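Entry type: protein chain
Record version: 2
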Amino acid sequence: MDPNHTGPEEYGHGGDAPRQRPPRESLTSDFGQHAPVPARTVQLVSGDFLLTVNPVDGSEIEPCPPAERPARPGRLTEPERAEVERAAAPPVPPGPAQPSLPLLARQDEREALVRLLARGRSVRLVGPGGSGRTRLLDVVAEDCADLAPDGVVRLNGHRRSADDLLHDLFHAVFDAPLNRPDRDELLESVREIGAVVVLDDLEFGGAALDELLDATPECAFLFSATPDVADPSADSGVEDVELPGLDRAAGLDLLGHAVGRTLTDEEATWAGDLWFESEGLPLRFVQAGALLRQRDRLRAGTSAVDEFGVFEDVRPDEAPYDPADGDEVPLPSLGEAAAPAPLLASRLSASARATLRFAVALGGEVPHQAHLPALVGDTHADAALGELVSCGLVSPVGARYRLAAGVPAQLEAAGYTDDADTRIREAAQHYAWWTGHPSVTPERVCAESDAILAALTALTPLAAGAADEPGTAVQFARTAAPAFAAGLHWSAWERALRAGAEAARIAGDVGEQAYFHHELGIHALCAGQLDRARAELEASIGLRGALSDKRGTVAGRRALALVADRSGVPLSIAPTAAEEVPEAHVEESASPPRGVPMAFPDLQPPADTGLVVSRAVPAATVPQTKDGVGGGVKGLAKRNLVAAGAGALLVAVLGTVVTLGATSGNDPASPSENVGVNPSASQGLDDGSLDADPAAGNEGDTGKATSRPSDPGPDGTPGTADDPTPTATGSDEPSDDETRTEEPDEPTRPTSPGSTPTKPTKSPKPPTSNSPTPTETETEDPEDPTEQPTESPTTPPEEPSTSVTASDTASSAPVETSTTATQSTDQASPDDTETMI
């Protein structure tokens, strides 16, 4: 058999048809291992920003490039508008079609609403829950289809703010996918919309309602609200239309349509009592009709087929009667008819009762019918929604269903909250898996936002009591929040982020806390709340810095830079948490190698080791940083002033040194030739007097400046006033007055009583010198320039002190008084410089 041309009996195909081998990548395993699903990253435009929603590392935001800026949005076409309206309608329950009940005794209200809307007026329909407001809005919307250029726009205000409704109106009229305009663009766009806006379940009034009306001057609004909602302001121009209950005749007529047959006398009497008890609310008659239908089925026997085609018990085990015995089933009592939810639920299928338990645990939110099989554990559980709708236990709210008015309280009283914690955990685990699945679009997640947020909000308080709950809540928020952001449902995005931050705090997960704070900062930045954005981003940067998350820290710093750019407030000068402080933050240019240029450019500069004065004027203590600059913002702000002052001081000191060097000769006794590192005067420890330190020897010109008395005097203490006068060792040694050293700007203290201080004077005849350049003297800097070398008066120094007095200069003119040129490595003050000059 030819292996290249198989026969028809081989492999199930005939002839010479080549075999098709499945394509296979070279790096794919032969065992069918699936590659990991990539994260769902969405890039959208928010005002002037380009936002990249990254569910892994956190969203990234940057200024939108001009090429990425969307064009001016255009209006939706008729087919697109029809698709938007279909998506805004509640889903049709599976099973047989439900009979449509007529709108009874509402003709006057209907005509009044249409008349006001035709005149361009906004009107508010006010009625209690269960009065039929939604049904009346549907009829009025059909009557106003041709009144406005943009037709009728249906919106829902349940848990929606004025800003959310403006964005919903914008996307209902304009084609702008993945584009959330900023406030100015939004107001400019909605100002051009001319439509009849039918808004059900309005939850705000007052100034917020005025803001919505002022932003849309070409729209006529038909609001629906309950009496507990705040009233509009007096100058808003919104008129209220009250929706009362039905009269008795209309109530009996509605009950007959709900049952599908004519009422008996007994049932009519029972319905009259119900009308008086319920104040004519249409919802009560719809639920009463469901009670009568269940009674008819029970009277027919348990062998009757359920109207939804499900063969299972239609009553609970605790039913107080057995219809198989042929006994007459009594009518419900008046109390059961006024609060019929427990009785109606007891006669529904097990899947419907489980659905009610989930709805009660989620705060009244009924999960979508597509989720019921997974939540309940029954493949036919989606039919439970049809049972609940026919019984009047749920009512439509926008594109979803909620428990009808009064039903949650009635079910809670009947014990439907006993296993609420278990139901919440099951719903949270399911939604956490579903929102993170790559096949689920952000639009589907946003449509189920109320149930998702209800599960997440209810799970967060439970996280503190169980070990695994915090992780589930955090994972749930991590998958739901990016989907809300990508679907442009930003109020839900913020609520999910806050719930996730709380769950992460309870779990002690610092990394997840940093993620949620970063996302909250991004949300606030896009919403224009710059102060809150700065606080959230700084918190995120601090947490990520503690974890050494460099990538996340960089993303946070970029967003924080945008906040600073928008607000006009520069970033904090002080480093944030976990920031690496550089070695220097000096912005001015570096000083020249030899310091500031001197005031005498014709002369040669001195050696690098300059002459400084030992004693400086004490200054006020200023906090110093590592670089020697005053700490804090004030110190940094004054650094230029400090640098200028230091430069001026250096110029004065260097000019003095050059002047002294230029005027001195080659005499070996010149002070410029004898510069030592030790101070020539030190303060005694006993009496505070100033005495010159003794030199190590008495050779040449570096001999003793003063001679200490060997006789301590009558008191026995050397260095006091009664000591004998020291004897001069040579004719060239100075006297007591010549060897004193005085403090700057202070009068000279006498060393003996009776002496008067004398002011130092300069020599009237400066010495002449043949050398035009100053003599350079090398000095050895100590290790710590801030420490003063002090010695005990009784202990001779290790190195000789080369102190020079004014009498040693090569001048023949007599000098009455002079000062000692003191040398050290400390900084000099301007007063000391004047003394030297």
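Comment: The longest strand covers residues 220-225.
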